[in-house]
Amino acid sequence: MALPKGIVAIPRTSQKAHMIENLNVFDFELDVADMTTISKLDLNTTQFPECE
Fold first, then answer.
1. What are phi and psi of 13, to 5 degrees?
2. Is the pTM of this model over 0.85?
3. pLDDT surpasses 70 at 52
């Protein structure tokens, strides 16, 4: 969801299989309805308050 918005995601892994999975983000596309549905899930709260 970040890429269409121009946001670069930097995945972190040291396992080759996960690196390949993380780089395989161009084999699908979210349409406007998908993006809208996902955006509605944002409650504008953090799941990690200890990091604030």
1. -160, 155
2. no
3. no
Number of Cβ within 10 Å of residue 19's Cβ equals 13
Tokens of 25: 């983000």
Tokens of 33: 């309805």
Rounded to 5 degrees, φ, ψ at 35 are -60, -40
Sequence letter at residue 38: I
DSSP 4-52: GGTPPP------HHHHHHHH--SS----HHHHHHHHTT--S--S-GGG-
* Residue 42, token pair as written in the block: 């944002």
